[in-house]
Structures are given as C-alpha cells and as structure tokens.
Batch of 3 targets.
Target 1
Amino acid sequence: MTVTDWTEVTNHLDALYAASEGLETIFAGRKFTLDGHLVGSIGEVVAAYMFGLELMPASTLGHDAMAPDGRRVEIKLTQGKSVALRHAPEHLIALHRPKGGPVRVVYNGPGGVVWDACGKPQKNGQRPISLTRLRALNAALTDAARLPLLREPPV
C-alpha cells in the first residue's frame, strides 16, 4: 500500500486555488472555479482516506466507493454552496472545502433522504441540493446511519 503525503496534496490544492484566483483577477468577470472531474476525484480520494472506503474504477455508474460494511457510497465535494445528484445513492458523503481548506463533512448518511429533499431536475438531469439543507438533514441522523469517521480530513 502506498503512503500518501497529504502535506504535498494540500500544497498542490493550494496552488490550484491560487491559480484559480489569479486567473479571475486577470480576467475580471470570468469565473475559473475548480469543478468537474478534478474536484470529484479529490473528494473521492479524501473520503476514501477519511472513511476507509474502497474506490471503484473512475466513472463507475451509480456510486464511487464501497464502504467496509458493504454500503455503496456516492461522494460529492464542492467549494460552492450546493451539490447535485443524478440518482438516489445508497449512501452519500458530501464534503465541502472552501479556499484554504480544510475539508468538512456536510452530510454522511442514507442517500434516499437526500434524494427526496433535492430540487427538480436541471436540464442536465442533475437534482441540486444546498449545503445548508444537507447540514440540516445530517443533524437529524443517528450515528448508526453514518459511516464511522476513521481519520480527520487530511486537506
């Protein structure tokens, strides 16, 4: 098993955020938000570390990882104010990393609860939900509904 140098990972993330800010300064009025596959992959490796998840191959339809107890897990990371889902996951871990970090767990629980609370489908088929709503849903969960946190966020 390879040991990950999370300090190096943090340095790379900070450089990405600095590049994003720099481009937004140069091109006033344009957003250079980190999103898509980049942020998704960061969220997946961080959640795997935090919760002891086994990551599925990239772009596996329906879920990103398998929990030690067999639950299929969808992972979302955002630097914004919401996430979006294409389907009802068995279990959802939603993370937030503002510029400068650290990662915070916004939601860790059954996916159906979130799916039922999501907004209407957008043109791309995704259903959005705000981090504020996710935090409220998370606060109502029992510890048994959550995956146990094995390690604090590394970045």
Target 2
Amino acid sequence: MLENFTVSLVDEVSSNPCPPIIVGLSIGGTTGKTMTLAKKALLRKVGESNPDPEVAKLEKDILERINRLGIGAMGYGGTVTALAVHAETFPCHMASLPVAVNVQCRCARHEEIIL
C-alpha cells in the first residue's frame, strides 16, 4: 500500500518537478517528524541505500516501479523518471502511521561555482 501511494503520487505530479527526480520518503514518527525526515532523506548521497535491509529493499522496489511509469527525463518519456528513492523511518504507534513524500526537482540538483 505504501509503494502504491508513493508511485501514484509520482505519476500524478508527472513532469511537473522536472524529472529525473529524487524521492524522499519518511515513515513513522509524528507528523512534524515525518515531514522533517522526508526532507532529510533527500540529503543522502544519490543511490546510497538505507542501512536497514528491509528499508533498502523498499527503496529499490519503489524506484523500479517509478521508472516503469515511463515519464522519463523532463517528461518526454523514457526509463529514468527517478534517480533514487531514499526512505527514512522512525518509531510510532501503529494506529497513527504518518507518511511523507518529498519530490526533489531538478533545480535542487543544480550546482555552480563563481570564480
């Protein structure tokens, strides 16, 4: 269900965030903690998996499903819609399992230097 939610969200935003994107996913904690962790997940090096094998598998599975959407770079179609899915988790009560998804657009990956 979490995978479906994340993939359908990326499908819904489609090319708006200028793919290829990075997806920050957070599961658990309080609502505020979840939002913060989703942003923190975006700061991890691209392709660096979560140290928890179960969470790393979730990241890999969601990334594969997102790239099968066929949105592609800049929304022109293709096999690379996302460069990475980074997930963070935090303990919480099962009755209130907050989830946050943060989609990082191309402008956040831009790098420049002034000499």
Target 3
Amino acid sequence: MNKVPNNRAWWLVLPVFILVAFSALIPLMTVVNYSVQDIFGPGNAYYVGTEWFREVLADERLRESLLRQFLFSGAVLAIQIPLGIGVALMMPKSGIKASLCLILLAIPLLIPWNVVGTIWQIFGRGDIGLFGWGLNALGLDYNYTGDTVDAWLTVLLMDVWHWTPLVALLCYSGLRAIPEAFYQAAEIDRASKWAVFRYIQLPRLKSVLVIAVLLRFMDSFMIYTEPFVLTGGGPGSSTTFLSQTLTTMAIGQFDIGRAAAFSLIYFLIVLLVSWVFFTAITHLDKEK
C-alpha cells in the first residue's frame, strides 16, 4: 500500500516565506525596477535599459572604491582570523576567569557602530586622545585627519578592535566542543602544543572558521558607519568605501537609477565572493 505524502507541514513554513518576501524580495525587486529607469520624480520615470549599469561599470570612483574595499577586507581577514584564534586559545577553559574573559570580549560587540566611530574619533586625536597623543609623544607624526596612511590604519585598527572578539568567541565555542578524550590521547602520545593545534584543534575549528570568514568578509565589505563618523571618507577619498560612494550617489546626488544599478552590482560582488570563500573552504575540508 502506497503512502500518501503529508504536505501539511509546509503550512508552517509559509509564514517564513511571506516574511522573506516582504523583507527581502520585494525591496530587491524595487531596486531592480529603479535600476532600469531614469527617475525624475514621483510618476515621472523613463525606461533606459542597461544604461546605468554601463555607466556605473565605467565609473572611475567605483573601481577605486572596489579596490580600496578589497584591500580593506583582505587586511581584516588576514589580521582578525589568526588573532581571534590566538585569543581563543589563550582563554581559560572554565571557571570564573573564563566567564570574565567572555564578558570583556563581548563589550566591544555591544557598542553601536556610530558610537565606535565617535570613540575612535576622540581616542585618535593628537591633543586629547590617549592613542593619538601617545603616538605623538613617542615622536611619531600621527594625524588621521590629514594623513592618508594614518587614516587607513586607524580605520583598520578600529575594525580589529570592534570585531576580533566575534571571531574569538566563535573559535572559543568551537574549542570547547572538542571532546576531552582527544587531549588525553595527545598527552599520552606526548604531542607538542603545535601538534595539538595542527591535528586536533584546527581541524575541529574549520566549520566555525567558515562562519567567521563569511561573517567578517560580508560585514567588512559593507562597512559604512564607523569610517564615515571617524574620517568622513577622507583625507581625500582614502577611506571612502563602496557603501559611502553608494550613499553619496543615492542621497547626496539623488541619482536613484544609477544608485540602484550600483547597489545591485555591489550585492552581486558580495554574493559572488562569499560563495567563492564558502566553496573553497568546504572543498578543502572534503579533500582532507
């Protein structure tokens, strides 16, 4: 006797699909609609096809911002992933010290993004900021508002301070999930700390690191508030990332059609690179 499949469980998923449609698909379709029109005002728009996409792709600002964005995201991953692993390895395994470390690590993550920019704006000032004043007292000519290298490094340091705890917390949770029997076997074999990390801890952290890499890449690639508050995109355009270029185009210039095309290209870049990261990491995991 053939069983009749019961599909009533799909009714439980229906509210989720409706919510996703309103929160993601409908706004996305609106942007797609704007990207092929030249909008002069309410009810006054003309179809232009792919004209805005061609103009955006030929825009020098987009290429400069894209290169700046990739350099920043690459530096973020190169610093925060190893640093987060190192912090997680040094944290106590249990007890009151472990709880205290977890609380202290979580503090930067609780601070709103605009407040983070304001904190570092004051912190980096050469006259009243401890960081800026300290560097100048050491003989270093530090000025993040006037020097492009100082501004770039300050934004990078600010992001490292703000988001490395997230990587550390993820890695810490992965380390705590490793059974104690693995460590006992390594101790019996007199394995070194490096061998324990290389053959026990790192392989068990791969799934956590996939999440950490994807989250940090996507977030760093869409960074806006912190550098905008700290440097305003300057000096010049040294800290003007893709999100700031898009905001200037959409709000400052009110160029809705071009901004919509820009945002779709932005979305596809984030989606493509995230897919490449995920595919590469999971492929390496399968090979081993």
